[in-house]
């Protein structure tokens, strides 16, 4: 479907003062080349100035009449296909600008001809004509806009010439070509070719084939250079031979009837099935830098003559094939040639047309049909630009919109259609902006903001042109050649038509859209989308960064986003959610959006889904904007009528800080009558705090159990924490809970963490700010949070991090003799009973602590928690050792920590040494608890010899050592055989001491 609008994309027109009838013309960056018709063998060059003023630069002769011509911006050369004496030639005109300076020197040379040093000083002051001989007559030609390479179409093949820059000396660089590749295509006669960034589009009368030349890494460069041919496997049915195809074609020619083939469209990989085999022949000299290519098929399309919607058409032929590149936005581009080649290609589009319908494809990252253009009458030619498609028919110049910028925007940012960014869809209906009457349009081309149009009128048309009632674009007086004899007026004209500036046309589209605001919402959105894409295409242009109207275009872009946001907010459309990204792209604050959409004092205004969607998402996200009291109360009123269930969540937004709490409670009471919830109760309690109504607060908080309240905070975390410039900040509610219900605050924060609503590091900041602590100190409430999280945490990495944190805090307090600033929420016994991360304290640890000095008893909670933690198997002791090391020498506490760590590491002998050295009375208790199973042998291999040795040498602890020795002997005598036990006895004459145990051993032996 084509939308039709009556806009004015065409501005003033001027006549190009040609000396002879034009046959062909093309454009450079600032010039127009015009080749004469019939037997005239020459090209006129015109400089195109501001508003399309043409100034003759000069002219140069050609070998014959020009059949085709093209200009390459890269290299600034003109290439022509010329005919003389029924023979065609391919020529490139280099350094043609010297002709305008008055130089008449011309150098004609063959391609690849070596430049002689003797010509080095004069070459830069003369035009150079490069002749490129071909084995077959050239039929069509195309220059690559990216690198200036040349592609020539001949019967059954395409020939590629690479543009070369030859440095003659320090002051002179000469352009030349090298024929590098031939693509042999059997039974294929190209009518037109297009060439861009190694992408090739070829058309015959009814076929379109798009290819891409891909660089390959040659496995055997020697073999490639020897054979110099790289043949691809024939796509499609490999059993079809060339002879079969020729026989089949001959048979069709002999038949006296016509067989109309069915139309075919093959995209991407499927296009290999087109059964058009291509053979590559490399013709460049083989070197280390030689490039080897392979062909990738992108698209094949065959049209049947009966596909015209206007009936059977014998003259149905394809025309106007073009490849349009769009470059990466924001790349540093200037008009200079050296940087022109560095532009990064973003997207590539291909256009081709039948007489009554045109097709636009994306052939970059994805091959797909973007738009189809239906013409009102038979087209003669079409030209594609990033913003428009210009089509000429027998009587009209038509301007259609295109979707290239929408597709390129998605290539540049695949995630553009989100809550942050948006772009009108590629599938948006195309529209005709203008159908401008002309008499006999024949050819068209385009560059910058100019359209060059050739018209040729019949005799009756010329008569018609003299009538004063004709309606055409106004001509500038200074551009019309004076003619005294109207009968001698020629029947042709070459016009330069200025397209209006992007900003001017954008303004007209916006004004036009207002006529649809109330009548046709979709048309309003469609036209504003067209305006947006028009500006977006201008911004994506490589010259945008250096354009004079850069700031004006950016303002128009933001303004168009705002207009689209208004549409999706005001109108009831299925894409209402787009209001959010468009307002964000417009850079509008919430207050500004409210001013645009909300009428003052209108209490019964209705609000569409798009506006409510925008407000809901904006208020639920953490943005640094506070609405005024009036705006916040207006938002309350909007949601109370449009979506009252959102009110509890809306009131928790930082943006609504200035909302009247009394008004909020009034609205919340209405919601509670219909749908009570925990979040609603908490929100009412929050509002009661703001009003200072503690009675209402206590009533609301007492209506649910603490566990239910804690889970309620997970549904709306902003009741407790909010973000400011990326930093988590506690709310007034959290401050109040810290003083009055710290247990609920900790439980709620644990629930937030477990539901992914607050990270561990954010919780650290949250509690430190809440307790007014510096970054280096840890408040007890944070330790309470860590301990509570240990109870429920199931993630092993988080668990180990928590264990190290609480361990570090326990150690720090014990060493600093620092008591917690608030009473801990959980005792050691509470933690042991509720969490397997804390274990029962071992008897030998309790025994050691009972013998400790009074200072060790000043911090029983931190010490017992640390010991309980080490008595479990949860902590990674290797990671904890650096934290525990400063505590090891701290009296009996340090002894228990040292021995517990050694035990975790399996160093039982070291543990016994430490105990015998610092607390011998605990050695046997330790052994009885720890030396079991695999460590049982430590009893007799370590403990017994050490006790015997220390008993002889020590006097102070003699009773303790003797008692420990007896306990040890009781265990050893029960475990060892009599012979093994005897081998352990010391040889110092004290065997009598061991006789009872020997007797016990022998009796046990007899019993068994």
Automatic annotation (TrEMBL):
<dbReference type="InterPro" id="IPR017216">
    <property type="entry name" value="HPS3"/>
</dbReference>
<feature type="domain" description="BLOC-2 complex member HPS3 C-terminal">
    <location>
        <begin position="504"/>
        <end position="1005"/>
    </location>
</feature>
<dbReference type="GO" id="GO:0005737">
    <property type="term" value="C:cytoplasm"/>
</dbReference>
<dbReference type="InterPro" id="IPR029437">
    <property type="entry name" value="HPS3_N"/>
</dbReference>
<dbReference type="GO" id="GO:0031084">
    <property type="term" value="C:BLOC-2 complex"/>
</dbReference>
<protein>
    <submittedName>
        <fullName>HPS3 biosis of lysosomal organelles complex 2 subunit 1</fullName>
    </submittedName>
</protein>
<dbReference type="Pfam" id="PF14763">
    <property type="entry name" value="HPS3_C"/>
</dbReference>
<dbReference type="Pfam" id="PF14761">
    <property type="entry name" value="HPS3_N"/>
</dbReference>
<feature type="region of interest" description="Disordered">
    <location>
        <begin position="465"/>
        <end position="486"/>
    </location>
</feature>
<feature type="domain" description="BLOC-2 complex member HPS3 N-terminal">
    <location>
        <begin position="3"/>
        <end position="484"/>
    </location>
</feature>
<dbReference type="InterPro" id="IPR029438">
    <property type="entry name" value="HPS3_C"/>
</dbReference>
<feature type="compositionally biased region" description="Polar residues">
    <location>
        <begin position="476"/>
        <end position="486"/>
    </location>
</feature>
<feature type="region of interest" description="Disordered">
    <location>
        <begin position="224"/>
        <end position="243"/>
    </location>
</feature>
């Amino acid at each position: 479907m084509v939308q039709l609008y009556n806009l004015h994309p065409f501005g003033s027109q001027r006549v190009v003062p040609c000396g002879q009838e034009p046959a062909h013309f093309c454009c450079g960056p600032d010039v127009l080349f015009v080749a004469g018709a019939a037997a005239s063998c020459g090209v006129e060059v015109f400089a195109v100035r501001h508003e399309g003023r043409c100034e003759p630069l000069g002219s140069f002769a050609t070998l014959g009449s020009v059949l085709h011509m093209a200009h390459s911006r890269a290299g600034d050369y003109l290439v022509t296909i010329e005919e003389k004496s029924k023979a065609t030639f391919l020529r490139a005109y280099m350094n043609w600008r010297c002709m305008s300076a008055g130089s008449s020197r011309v150098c004609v040379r063959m391609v690849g001809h070596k430049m002689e040093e003797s010509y080095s000083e004069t070459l830069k002051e003369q035009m150079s004509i490069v002749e490129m001989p071909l084995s077959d007559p050239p039929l069509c030609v195309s220059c690559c806009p990216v690198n200036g390479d040349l592609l020539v179409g001949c019967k059954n093949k395409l020939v590629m010439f690479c543009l070369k820059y030859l440095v003659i000396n320090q002051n002179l660089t000469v352009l030349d070509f090298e024929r590098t590749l031939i693509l042999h295509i059997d039974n294929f006669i190209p009518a037109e070719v297009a060439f861009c960034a190694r992408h090739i589009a070829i058309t015959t009368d009814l076929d379109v084939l798009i290819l891409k030349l891909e660089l390959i890494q040659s496995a055997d460069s020697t073999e490639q250079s020897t054979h110099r041919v790289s043949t691809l496997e024939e796509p499609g049915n490999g059993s079809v031979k060339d002879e079969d195809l020729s026989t089949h074609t001959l048979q069709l020619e002999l038949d006296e009837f016509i067989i109309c083939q069915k139309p075919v469209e093959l995209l991407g990989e499927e296009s290999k099935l087109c059964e058009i085999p291509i053979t590559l022949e490399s013709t460049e000299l083989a070197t280390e830098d030689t490039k080897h290519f392979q062909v990738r098929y992108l698209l094949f399309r065959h049209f049947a003559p009966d596909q015209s919607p206007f009936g059977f058409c014998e003259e149905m032929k394809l025309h106007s094939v073009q490849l349009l590149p769009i470059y990466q936005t924001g790349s540093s581009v200037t008009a200079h040639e050296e940087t022109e080649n560095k532009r990064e290609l973003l997207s590539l589009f291909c256009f081709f047309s039948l007489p009554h319908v045109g097709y636009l494809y994306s052939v970059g990252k994805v091959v797909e049909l973007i738009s189809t253009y239906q013409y009102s009458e038979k087209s003669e030619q079409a030209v594609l630009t990033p913003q428009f498609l210009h089509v000429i028919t027998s009587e009209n110049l038509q301007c259609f919109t295109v979707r290239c910028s929408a597709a390129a925007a998605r290539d540049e940012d695949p995630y553009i259609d989100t809550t942050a960014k948006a772009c009108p869809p590629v599938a948006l209906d195309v529209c005709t902006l203008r159908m401008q009457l002309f008499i006999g349009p024949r050819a068209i081309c385009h560059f910058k903001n100019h359209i060059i149009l050739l018209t040729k009128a019949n005799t009756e048309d010329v008569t018609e042109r003299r009538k004063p009632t004709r309606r055409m674009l106004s001509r500038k007086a200074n551009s019309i050649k004076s003619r005294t004899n109207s009968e001698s007026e020629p029947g042709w004209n070459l016009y330069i038509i200025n397209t209006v500036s992007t900003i001017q046309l954008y303004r007209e589209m916006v004004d036009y859209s207002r006529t649809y605001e109330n009548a046709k919402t979709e048309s309003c959105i469609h036209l504003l989308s067209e305006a947006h894409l028009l500006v977006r295409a201008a911004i994506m242009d490589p010259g945008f960064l250096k354009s004079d109207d850069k700031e004006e275009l950016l303002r128009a872009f933001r303004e168009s986003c705002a207009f689209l946001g208004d549409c999706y907010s005001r109108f009831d459309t299925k894409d209402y959610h787009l209001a959010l990204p468009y307002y964000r792209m417009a850079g509008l604050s919430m207050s500004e959006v409210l001013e645009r959409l909300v009428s003052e004092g209108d209490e019964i205004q209705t609000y569409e889904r798009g506006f409510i969607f925008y407000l809901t998402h904006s208020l639920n996200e953490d943005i640094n904007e506070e609405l005024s009291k009036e705006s916040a109360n207006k938002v309350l009123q909007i949601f109370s009528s449009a979506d009252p269930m959102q009110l509890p969540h809306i009131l928790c937004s930082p943006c609504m800080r200035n909302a009247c709490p009394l008004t909020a409670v009034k609205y919340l009471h209405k919601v509670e009558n219909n749908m009570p919830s925990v979040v609603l109760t908490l929100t009412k309690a929050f509002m009661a705090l703001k009003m200072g109504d503690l009675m209402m607060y206590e009533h609301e908080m007492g209506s649910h159990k603490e566990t239910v309240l804690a889970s309620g905070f997970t549904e709306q975390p902003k009741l407790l924490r909010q973000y400011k410039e990326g930093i988590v900040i506690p709310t007034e509610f959290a401050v109040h809970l810290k003083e009055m219900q710290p247990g609920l605050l900790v439980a709620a924060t644990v629930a937030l963490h477990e539901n992914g609503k607050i990270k561990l590091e954010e919780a650290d900041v949250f509690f430190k700010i809440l307790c007014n602590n510096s970054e280096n100190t840890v408040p007890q409430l944070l330790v309470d949070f860590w301990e509570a999280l240990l109870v429920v945490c199931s993630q092993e990495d988080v668990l180990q991090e928590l264990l190290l944190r609480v361990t570090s805090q326990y150690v720090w307090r014990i060493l600093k003799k620092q008591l917690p600033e608030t009473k801990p929420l959980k005792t050691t016994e509470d933690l042991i009973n509720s969490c397997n991360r804390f274990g029962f304290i071992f008897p030998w640890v309790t025994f050691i602590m009972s013998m400790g000095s009074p200072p060790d008893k000043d911090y029983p909670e931190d010490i017992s928690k640390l010991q309980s933690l080490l008595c479990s198997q949860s902590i990674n002791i290797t990671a904890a050792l650096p934290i525990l090391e400063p505590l090891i020498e701290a009296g009996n506490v340090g002894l228990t920590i040292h021995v517990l760590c050694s035990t975790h590491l399996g160093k039982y002998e070291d543990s016994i040494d430490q105990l015998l050295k610092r607390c011998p009375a605990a050695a046997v208790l330790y052994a009885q608890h720890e030396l079991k199973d695999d460590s049982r042998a430590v009893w007799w291999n370590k403990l017994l010899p050490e006790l015997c040795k220390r008993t002889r040498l020590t006097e102070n602890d003699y009773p303790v050592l003797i008692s420990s020795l007896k306990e040890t002997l009781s265990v050893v005598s029960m475990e060892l055989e009599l012979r093994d036990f005897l081998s352990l006895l010391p040889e110092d004459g004290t065997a009598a001491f061991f006789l009872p145990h020997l007797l016990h051993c022998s009796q046990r032996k007899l019993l068994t």
